[in-house]
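Re: weekly structure request thread

Next one in the queue (236 aa):
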Amino acid sequence: MQIDLSPYEYILFDVDGTIAETEGLGHLPAFNAAFKQFSIPWHWDSQTYKELLKTTGGFERLKDYRHAIEQAGNNDASWLPDDKLLKQVHLAKNQIYAQLMQEGAVVARTGLVWFINELSAHGKRWGVVTTTSHSNWDSLWKQVLESQISTEPAVVICGEDVQLKKPDPQAYLLAMKKLGADPGSCMAVEDSGNGLLAAWNAGIDVLVVRSQFFSDGDFSLAKVIADDFSQLSPSY
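Done, posted below.
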């Protein structure tokens, strides 16, 4: 699949689902382990988690799930964790996620390492624009990616760096500000509808690489759509 990268100086990557299939292999089991650790009677299966991924941000996802239980009025609503406890759960979940990275639970997506190293070899710079936390990105970078990728990201924007998460364009706008870049010099790489909209609303062209939980998304606004990075044949 041909992709012309000649107009772009910066290629900005989402993380979860895009760089690696971290949602199903990392975040989901980490959430369930954290629920068990705090004796919270919740367990998310893949279908439940797919629905929850419509909300960006792990803590926000926890609050949305609690709200759904409240609205449903089912038996689980007899005891619900408050925000303070949910923050503790989220912190524990991130620690469990880091341990999973150390144990090798996640690998880079097919062709990802080749693609980034090719970009660097042809004078392109790459960066990270994600709604995940800095700690989660650091775990993935240090445990999975750093030893394989020849250059470090030119910019890293994570969930803590912005007030509004994807699909709001704030994270991409901040990345461009830090890089001194304009939208025409950037391409975003995303796997979800929320990520696509965030980049598109910032005026940035988008390459979508389909992932486990978003393979059936509406990506009609994308410039290029692929199933994995190995399908791409870039020109510079």
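Strands lie at 2-4, 10-13, 125-129, 156-157, 186-190, 205-209, 224-226, 233-235. The first helix runs from residue 22 to 37.
Next request, please.
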